[in-house]
Amino acid sequence: MKIHLIGVASILTLAMLGSSGCDTPKPQTTLEVVEAKWIPPQTKIDPAYVEAGRRLLGNGLADPRAGTFCVEKTADQDLQARPMALERYGWVSSDRKWLNGLDGVISPIHGDIHPANLELVVNDLMRKPKPPRFSSEHSDLSPATIAVLLVAGRPGLAEQISFPEFYGQSPEASLTEYLALRYEAMADTDLEQRKDQDGLSAASYWVRVLRIQAGTEKPAGPPTQTRMPTNSRGTELAKATNLFNDFQRRVAGQETQTYDPKSLTGLDKQTRIAKLIEALAGETPMISNPGGADWIGDPVCQALATEGADAIPPLIDALERDKRLTRGVFRRTFSETAPGAPITVHSAEWTAIQMIWPTAVRYANTNPGESPDPATLKAAWAKEGSVPDAQRWLNVLEDDRAESRLWVDAAENLVKPSNEIRVGWSRMTPAAKAPMTGEPLRALQGAAISALLAKRAEQVAAPTAQNAQGLFGAGSALRIAHLSYRWSRPDSLSCLQAVCRSIVSELPSFDREGNLKDNLGDPFGVAIADRLTLKDASAVQDYAAFVPYVKPEIWFTSPGFFRPLWTVPINEAVQQIGTRYMKSWSAKFASPDPKVWRSSLDCAVGTLASSSIIQFRPYRQLLIEAIETKTAGGESEIVQMGDRKFAACKIGGQAVTNWNIPQGSEADYETGNKSTFSVGDYAAQSLVQFVKGIPPFFASLPGPKRGEARKAIVNWLSDDKRDWEAVARSSPFYSIGQD
Q1: What single DSSP character describes residue 4?
Q2: Beta strands of 411-486 (E only): which ranges?
Q3: What are the CA-CA distances from residue 529 to residues 458, 481, 483, 524, 614 (Å)?
Q4: For 596, how many CA atoms within 13 A lie in the half-sphere containing its CB?
Q5: Edge-to-edge order in the sheet of strand 83-92
Q6: Which of 234, 397, 409, 477 is the most interior residue, by most CB within 10 Å?
Q7: Handedness of CA 689, 691, 692, 697 (dihedral sign)
Q8: Helices and strands in the chain, H and E counts
């Protein structure tokens, strides 16, 4: 946007802000709602909205009175580490530390301040397209802007703005909801970035807005859209208050120190366990951002796991009393304007409990990520504490009243290596091989366990099975059938056949009910591969019936679906099915619709290229056809951040990813240079990120060199004498889709 700066006189005014700016917002250390002095002007704006603004003033709504209108320009980066030039408009406080934003939010100033013209800025903002909700792009026109302009004494300007509805709610409800979400998001980011004093103010405003919200919302039916997900423990107000209290703890100097194993030397066991529980609030091992925490890989959780059963009682006690938060925030989006969910120390304690006592998951709530009631855990541990893991899991599998998800967990854990630790989707597998967890039961109960696995698989596959309706039940049934195969191959064939045939008979209805591809593609392919290994010729017919339902342009591809294509012994009929499928897939690459060609390509490359399917010649031909596609793809621009350069890629004008410049050649690419790329370039660039040993490629290479690099990759893929299984095994992603 063009910035409208004002003249020299106003610049001098800005320099004198110490005497004429807005009243400096004091660091907020209270949760009490205050009443600011303000008499609203005469206006045509909805009285309920004006009253909501009056109540919010002093409690989170920006106060522009007596200030100078300015623009704050900040160089920053988003959650993907991409550079951003941010501009925010508002009125500067007298100490020049706070911006009373035009968007209604009070925030600390971190950038350069320049005076601006309010009327011209507002008119420009009204003409500018509104960014998507919760995108990284900020908009200064918000549901609170009209209220801020009223407080500024500009009702005429306020009345020119068409009200931006928020989640389809009434104006007054939109005002409070918007401010609540903004302060929640600010507090989350401050928590991550260790800006505890800023976070304390943001959390204070969040609490007070929520308290006011309870009196301004009208029970006029449910909103047209749902709230963004936040921390699931308790009410919004309880979550906000807990975050405020956690910031107070940190500001008071009660920050948890980084874990140091040496500090535990010489301590008795109970003191050592207590120190480890205290250390859980230190560093948060994030899997990704967006994403959650990888507690199973956390050294503190691992140290607690090595303490064994003695750690369970104090960990359960901690679940009951520990209200601390970690520095991590679980997010579902790259946007910092969208709230996340601060990760509680509870989640680390619950993970540590499950690492020592895996069957504790059966006492969890419907959401396995939620820790159960401590009293329930104490009673259960008193009964189960001395029972071996294998027998605990068999008890779960034998329990006719257990939920189907627990039957799946029991089957998984009986068959897994005994030295492997699993919590939810996370696992930690030592390099040393170990027998199955259920191996001690095999001599006396092996055949009975096979029969029980078959019984549970067929129960879960049935449409009437409790908590196993439709697709999810079918996927779980296939998983149990495969685990039956791993437990005892000779006893598994009839179970595999029954479950696969049950699913084939329901394919049309499954396809109508939901995403058949995501839920069944991987486990169905694995079950067919199991049957082929057992020399079941009828598996071909079932695979042929299933494959047409899997559409590559809308499916997140997993290698398991294609496992029959490289199963030994090779089945020619199955190979023909795969060849036909690859040909139908490649036709998507030339689509003029970026959504179609990109989703098809992302499925074709990605982790799939790192799996054993790269042995399959028609798949490599699919990759060749993708690389040779000349359809226009998008454009890239060389961007520099610090000492690092990379190519920022856009498709259809939308930023989609960043490409690293080949090491040692950064000087060959000048910052700001733009170039276009084809669909084939995009395919080649994606492929080199997943396949080791492939010739190098960079989509921003000059035209002739880029063509030569694509040709080198095509020649490499065309070499049928290459050890393609060795190529797959060399990938760090090879284990995905493997048992």
Answers
A1: -
A2: 421-423, 426-428
A3: 19, 12, 13, 9, 17
A4: 11
A5: 106-108, 98-101, 83-92, 69-77, 112-115
A6: 477
A7: negative
A8: 28, 13
How far CA 159 is from CA of 154, 480, 535, in Å, comes to: 9, 63, 76
The CA distance from 517 to 519, in Å, is 6
Kindly write down the DSSP assignment for every residue of 185-231, as one continuous string. HHHHHHHHTT-HHHHHHHHHHHHHHHHHHHHH----S--SSPPPP--
Give pLDDT tens digits for 138-196.
577 889 999 999 999 999 999 998 765 555 678 888 899 899 999 999 999 899 889 99
Q: Tokens 């980066």 sit at which residue?
A: 77
Tokens of 453: 């696995």
Q: What percent of the chain has pLDDT over 90?
A: 51
Dig out the tokens for 141 from the structure.
């026109």
What span, in angstroms and rounded, lies between the C-alpha atoms of 146 and 124? Answer: 15
Does residue 215 carry a pLDDT above 80?
no
Q: Compute CA distances 155 → 45, 427, 666, whole Å.
A: 9, 59, 54
Task: Give the chain's mean pLDDT.
Answer: 84
Q: Three-state SS string across 328-359, please?
A: EEEECCCCCCCCCEEEEHHHHHHHHHHHHCHH
Task: List, in sequence order, every residue forming a beta bridge with 597; answer none if it has no partner.
Answer: none
Structure-token pair, residue 666: 């950064």
710 C-beta neighbours (distance < 10 Å), count: 22
Q: CA nearest 546: which of 456, 478, 612? A: 478
Task: Summarize pLDDT for 499-524 with one digit per residue, the tens.
Answer: 999 989 888 777 664 555 557 888 99
Residue 466 CA: distances (Å) to CA of 405, 406, 411, 458, 589: 10, 12, 18, 12, 42
Tell me which DSSP letter residue 519 carries: H
